[in-house]
Design brief:
The chain is an alpha/beta fold and 622 residues long. The chain is 36% helix and 17% strand. The protein has a six-stranded parallel β-sheet with strand order 5-4-6-7-9-8, with helices on both faces. It has a six-stranded parallel β-sheet with strand order 13-12-11-14-15-16, with helices on both faces.
């Protein structure tokens, strides 16, 4: 066996640089598209030197916040339908712990990212070093052990030879359709610099080819029997449809068998918005077309969805239906007493369709769905093109202005816009109202719903899809949580259009607060001024300009549409700020969502909310 003397860091970087993946069209591409890194004493001398030496083979990108760069890396993978990744390197201590939120986000959303936090010295000779956590009951403990519950695979590399096993195992986890998620290789700073005789074949890894597991014949037979018995079937399309790149298979299956499709937050864009069988969003943030049909369905074919509470209305929306869950992950496939069909979404749909030849849903049921979907398309147009009824617009009117900001001659290119969002009121409005024409053009992080993901995530999407216009829609609350990657986008030349909707606080949570019987408290900025304090007066446009972006505060929806036209023509990041109201939302659609109400309170409003809550939970299935 031929070997070459390398440090642990050099072997790791060279393996990543050489690793290629077979893409959907049969071509190959680098599996790791680059490494985001903020250097410190825990990674600059070891991993930093190795990244510099291989800079021609694998790019290193500097960011401004460790959590932000990890969000960008996760978003890159999501935009690539999990086929490619980015790695993230940090120093020890706070640099590492800043990655934890992004790790949890990736875990919840089943998205791959390679986390490479520095760690304290394996030798322990200089302990305690700067930023080291000391635990006198566990000598081998460091802050990096906090990654164990929020990653799919964790390993601490205490010897260079361990890398030969640990790195391929980490990549195997990230490329497995069922276990896919974040992985962490904790790298003590002295081990990063240790040399060893690295086998040359480690530096020439085989091309990654994703597996597509088919369904078990027994499960397939039972699934077909259930569907053949259905009178009112519907399909719920989740993120697994996109990660399997099964959108064509879904369309063919729905058309062949006359079954209406409704989309989760992760699954939105699985069908074009104007497909006759697309009922739109489902669940708590769902359209009336989808939710009305879902409540009447007798069989729900759930494809690639985790069936989280926003999709199921906290287990009330599908109370009258038997769920058939087509999912590559077995635990997901058995949720809500589902009949499981464990398989890749694309392969499983093909198997189902072949076995169901000649079977279709009832014609009257399909016709009802098509008519309902058409009515909802018209209603979306009304909601997003209405003149604001108050002095301030609400989110639907802003969404319409962003969507319609192209000239009539270039309107078709809006099909290529990617909208990015994560938290607040906007996920509900975008889920119902954004029109996604192509797979992946709706990028919502709603598994963790992490405030601060939006701008950093938009950067990752732009790196994955440089030819498309990436539009980040973000509330003022999330903007304040994390905005430093505006500067990174300018530095890297990755143009974003960022639309900031300023409703002066956490308007979404205040509405929830009032709905659960509590008074205005600690959410809107004007309610949070103590004695001796001053009203908040934040100039978001000025702040964005200070980080290098072009930015403007627009007075109304008409000005926003004009500013959007200019932003589309620009070449660097644009930030458009508009004042909005938090008191109005789209009333159409939606369903119950369980938020626990106190059993004891001095407020009558809480008592009333508790009574409604107790009535609603009687409709839950378990």
């Amino acid at each position: 066996m031929k070997t070459i003397k390398l440090t642990t860091s050099q072997a790791l970087v060279q393996h990543l640089a050489a690793l290629r993946v077979e893409m959907h069209d049969g071509s190959t591409a680098p599996y790791c598209a680059g490494v985001f890194s903020i250097f410190g004493h825990g990674n600059v001398a070891g991993l930093g030197e190795a990244l510099w030496a291989s800079r021609a083979e694998i790019a290193t990108y500097r960011a401004h916040n460790e959590q932000g760069m990890a969000h960008a890396a996760v978003a890159f993978s999501k935009a690539q339908f999990r086929q490619r990744i980015m790695a993230v390197s940090s120093s020890i201590g706070p640099g590492a712990t800043n990655l934890l939120t992004a790790a949890a986000l990736a875990h919840v959303n089943r998205l791959p990212v390679l986390l490479l936090p520095g760690d304290t010295f394996c030798s322990r000779a200089p302990d305690p070093v700067l930023q080291q956590l000391e635990d006198f009951s566990q000598g081998d403990l460091s802050v990096n052990d906090a990654f164990r519950p929020v990653t799919r695979y964790f390993d601490r590399i205490t010897s260079p030879m361990q890398l030969l096993t640990a790195l391929p195992r980490a990549i195997a986890v990230m490329t497995d359709p069922a276990s896919c998620g974040p992985v962490c290789l904790s790298l003590p700073q002295d081990v990063q610099t240790f040399a060893f005789d690295c086998p040359e074949d480690f530096l020439h890894p085989e091309v990654i080819r994703f597996r597509r597991p088919p369904a078990d014949s027994g499960q397939l037979e039972r699934a077909c029997a259930l569907l053949r018995s259905a009178k009112r079937p519907v399909i719920v399309a989740g993120g697994g449809v996109l990660y399997s790149q099964a959108w064509d298979a879904l369309r063919v299956f729905a058309e062949t068998h006359g079954i209406a499709v409704m989309e989760t937050q992760a699954g939105k864009s699985s069908l074009p918005w104007d497909h006759p069988l697309n009922m739109g969003a489902v669940g708590v943030t769902g359209s009336p077309a989808a939710n009305d049909l879902a409540s009447q369905a007798d069989v729900v074919l759930a494809i690639g969805t985790r069936l989280q509470d926003f999709t199921t209305g906290s287990h009330t929306l599908f109370a009258n239906a038997q769920i058939l869950s087509l999912n590559v992950n077995s635990p997901d496939a058995t949720k809500l007493k589902s009949l499981p069909l464990v398989a890749d979404a694309r392969v499983g749909l093909k198997q189902l369709s072949d076995a169901l030849q000649g079977w279709k849903a009832d014609d009257a049921w399909t016709a009802l769905a098509i008519a309902s979907a058409a009515r909802w398309v018209q209603r979306v147009t009304q909601l997003t093109t209405a003149t604001p009824a108050e002095s301030l617009p609400y989110d639907a009117e802003v969404i319409g202005a962003v969507r319609d900001s192209l000239s009539s001659e270039t309107q078709g290119s809006a099909r290529h816009d990617v909208v990015v969002c994560a938290a607040g009121t906007l996920p509900a409005e975008l889920h119902k109202l954004w029109r996604a024409s192509l797979p992946g053009n709706y990028h919502m992080e709603y598994g963790f719903s992490c405030m601060g993901y939006e701008i950093a995530g938009g950067l990752g999407v732009k790196m994955a899809r440089p030819a498309q216009e990436v539009i980040v829609m973000v509330g003022d609350g999330s903007y304040m949580m994390m905005n430093s990657e505006i500067a990174t986008s300018v530095m890297l030349g990755k143009k974003l259009i960022i639309v900031v909707l300023d409703n002066r606080g956490y308007g979404c949570i205040q509405r929830l607060q009032l709905a659960t019987g509590s008074p205005h408290f600690n959410n809107m900025l004007d309610d949070c001024i103590p004695e001796g304090g001053q009203p908040s007066d934040i100039d978001f446009a000025l702040h964005a300009r200070s980080m290098g972006a072009d930015a403007v505060h627009v007075a109304n929806v008409a000005e926003l549409k004009s500013a959007m036209t200019l932003a589309r023509a620009a070449t660097k990041t644009q930030v458009l700020v508009i004042d909005t109201t938090h008191t109005r939302t789209t009333e159409d659609g939606g369903c119950w969502w369980e938020v626990a109400i106190p059993e004891v309170s001095e407020r009558a409003q809480v008592h009333h909310a508790r009574a409604r809550y107790e009535a609603a939970i009687k409709n839950q299935t378990h």
